[in-house]
């Protein structure tokens, strides 16, 4: 009867994909914002100890990182004793002085007194190594020190 | 009977929803900041003059290679260390410290300014235990400073320091700095490590 009856077909209409780019961009931005940039590839195990009397280590550009811990699974050939890592490679206690000098040279002169050394040491390392590092830091007069820890109670962690 | 076509979903507002989510996460995510215990190493140059410190003003903490704790020649559990350190620091034996709430035991520390905590560890001590002990000793100072700040200014020392660092804090920063320094003078952190 009606002339203008729509032609009916059994096809499903295509799903509109116009908003897919938005979703993709959203994911992109999220990961851009949430990713933590790691400066160094760790070759050691670095399971930080816990402490709750912590202070924040802001001004990231004024921090020199010294890592220590036992070599990780892929670097077993370096033994099982805790070792120091500076930048991307294993180092010995003697290398700390030159590392500090190098870090200082890369900063503006007026900022040098504000440089802090952050010790990121595995909880199973022993204090002998830390004592050596501390002694070395005293020699080069890098006296501001931060023992980087995770936030949490110190009790009941064994 | 003719089949009815499924109506098309309007996807025009999808982008709005996506942006809403994007903005929400942009605002709420924080990039993790490292935190830890700040310490200052003693400078290398040896001071010529020998400072004479009375034995009663030193609180010795020894950590052996098996991670056992010896405090003032007695074996102690880690959980008791904070209270012991507070008792020592807040003793006020010579009466010159009018804000100390300690027992005024004449055989313990004279006043918080003279009281020194001496920490000694062995090479075999594990880093985890060392940090735990450091944490407890710092906590002892923080507890005392908080109590002092509460009684003087009615807010905790941690809050005062947070306010000082906060750029949006509306109050007078110079006055706050003075107050913080006053508390630091009242309870100076004298933690020495034996090499």
UniProtKB/TrEMBL annotation, chain A:
GO biological process annotation, one example: protein transport
Location(s) in or outside the cell: Cell membrane
Keywords, sorted A to Z: Cell membrane, Membrane, Protein transport, Transmembrane, Transmembrane helix, Transport
Membrane topology category: Single-pass membrane protein; Single-pass type II membrane protein
InterPro entries reported in the protein's UniProt record: ExbD (IPR003400)
GO function terms (MF aspect): transmembrane transporter activity
GO CC terms of this entry: plasma membrane
Keyword Cell membrane appears in the UniProt entry: yes
Chief location category: membrane
Family: Belongs to the ExbD/TolR family.
Protein's recorded name: Biopolymer transporter ExbD
Automatic annotation (TrEMBL), chain B:
Protein name from the UniProt record: Biopolymer transporter ExbD
A Gene Ontology BP annotation from the UniProt entry: protein transport
GO cellular component terms, A-Z: plasma membrane
Membrane topology: Single-pass membrane protein; Single-pass type II membrane protein
Primary location: membrane
Keywords in alphabetical order: Cell membrane, Membrane, Protein transport, Transmembrane, Transmembrane helix, Transport
Organism (species): Algibacter marinivivus
GO molecular function, one term: transmembrane transporter activity
Locations listed in the record: Cell membrane
Family stated for the protein in its record: Belongs to the ExbD/TolR family.
Keyword Transport among UniProt keywords: yes
């Amino acid at each position: 009867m009606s002339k203008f009856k729509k032609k009916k077909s059994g096809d499903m209409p295509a799903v509109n994909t116009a908003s897919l780019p938005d979703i993709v961009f959203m994911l992109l931005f999220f990961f851009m914002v949430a990713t933590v940039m790691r400066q160094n590839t760790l070759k050691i195990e670095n399971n930080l100890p816990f402490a709750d009397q912590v202070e924040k280590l802001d001004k990231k550009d004024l921090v020199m990182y010294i890592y220590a811990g036992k070599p990780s699974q892929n670097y077993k050939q370096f033994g099982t004793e805790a070792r120091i890592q500076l930048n991307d490679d294993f180092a010995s206690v003697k290398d700390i002085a030159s590392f500090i000098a190098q870090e200082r040279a890369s900063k503006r002169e007026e900022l040098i007194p504000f440089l802090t050394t952050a010790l990121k040491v595995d909880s199973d390392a022993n204090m002998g190594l830390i004592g050596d590092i501390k002694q070395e830091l005293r020699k080069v007069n890098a006296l501001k020190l931060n023992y980087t820890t995770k936030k949490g109670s110190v009790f009941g962690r064994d | 009977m003719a089949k009815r076509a499924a109506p098309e979903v309007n996807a025009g507002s999808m982008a709005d929803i996506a942006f809403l989510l994007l903005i929400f996460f942009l605002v709420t995510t924080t990039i993790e900041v490292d935190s830890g215990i700040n310490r200052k190493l003693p400078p290398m140059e040896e001071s010529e003059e020998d400072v004479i410190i009375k034995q009663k003003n030193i609180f010795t903490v020894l950590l052996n290679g098996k991670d056992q704790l010896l405090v003032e020649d007695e074996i102690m559990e880690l959980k008791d260390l904070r209270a012991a350190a507070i008792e020592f620091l807040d003793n006020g034996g010579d009466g010159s410290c009018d804000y100390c709430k300690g027992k005024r035991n004449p055989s313990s520390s004279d006043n918080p300014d003279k009281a020194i905590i001496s920490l000694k560890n062995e090479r075999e001590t594990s880093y985890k235990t060392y940090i735990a002990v450091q944490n407890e000793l710092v906590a002892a100072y923080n507890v005392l400073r908080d109590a002092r700040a509460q009684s003087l200014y009615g807010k905790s020392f941690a809050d005062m320091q947070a306010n000082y660092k906060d750029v949006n804090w509306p109050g007078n920063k110079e006055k706050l700095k003075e107050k913080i320094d006053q508390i630091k003078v009242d309870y100076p952190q004298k933690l020495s490590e034996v090499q």
